[in-house]
User: Fold these one by one.
Assistant:
Number 1:
Amino acid sequence: MERLRRFSWFERIKTGPSPDDDGLLRITRELAELFDVRVWYKGILWGRFERGGLGWMISKPVSPFYPGTLTIRGPSFESELILPEYLKGKLSMDSWRFLIGLHMVRLHANLTSGRFAKIFGVGVLPILGTFTLGVILQHVIGGPWGFAIFNAVWLPGFLPTLLYARSRLGRWELELDREAAGKLGTDGIIRVLEQMKVLDPRANPSTIQARFAAFWNVSIDDRLEALKRPWSGIPRRSWRPTVGLRLRAALVGIGFAIFWSSGFAANLVYGQGRTGFACTNTGCAVLVVSAAVGYWLAILAGLSLVIGIIQHLRRSRSMSTRTEG
């Protein structure tokens, strides 16, 4: 294990300790309990990094095979909190409390919420749609022009996916800031964000690559503006209809039915009893594309069904806990 640690990514960026490590560790454990993060922090580490992590820092598991530590709240995984070297000695303990709180609220959301999976699932639909259309057009047109049409139709599907993810993740980022401010205080969160606007090297990008990377993230100015505005506390209604568990299960069945029937029809009409054959006409290609669409519909609907069941069980457990309390 020690040999593996010597060649890990952290060993290449690790720096020395700080006199404030004991105080930072105490604050980290208190905030982990406040935000219900089921992680037991073993220590504070420092490293030279500017990107990665959640809220300017990284919670690194001690070992993915370690069973964890038994605490008052139950079993918790052991982790080490890695802080960026450029912040060493630059913040007071009070500012560190708010900054670590921003990390904890994001860590809790990533560990317990299925929102990221939802955003990814919805965002991948344009890519699948343009890919299916591109395959159909390629088989209809054929030749080098067909391949060119396929790329021209499929590749632009990534743009709406990226823009959708940027919009949804950005709104989620602002909501997490508001949640941290509700527990720790808005004035303190605003103060530490104003400090990070000066200390964070990414806050003032100077190169084209840095500006391009900053475009896909919510800027500190936007986060400050959102915190200073009055917050109604009422989420906006979504334009997407609510998909229940029964409809998701039905979509799984429909997807597998399309997949099986398309394959059966292709084998019956074009296979003529052979175990393998190549599609040489448009009709066979359409059946193959239809089978692929049914396959991915079943897979995505199945993933959505599993996520929905997990969320339903969590809500039921939360309601029963409130009732007993």
Note: The chain has three domains: 2-112, 115-236, 244-318.
Number 2:
Amino acid sequence: MNLENMRTIVGANMPYDTGFMFMAGAKYFETAHFLMVVYDTERVPYIIYNEEGTIYSTKNQGFISDRTVGALNRFNGGDNKAMSKYEEINNRRGSTNMIKQGALEKISNEPSYVSDSDRLRGLNK
């Protein structure tokens, strides 16, 4: 397993609402002997509540201990077919973020005759 595959699996198994946990919730480390993920509870303190559950919600309970660890073990055990599923989840989340940030509106409001190079040069006036 390499760092890229590990990042893909960990990201795909994180609960996703606004995308902040997905973008800033984990730190990844690689040495000559091991790969490591550290969930950043200082930046994203609600990771603990999602992992352990609360009296109000157990929807994401065990997303690290059950789903993420299980997916990493399956991948490391030779089930490489599942990787496309995790990549698709992450790509869909990235597209959703772009739409939420208004990328689609910016593109749809421009006249069709404005090319990408004109847009980059600021000539779309």
Note: The chain is about 55% helix and 10% strand.
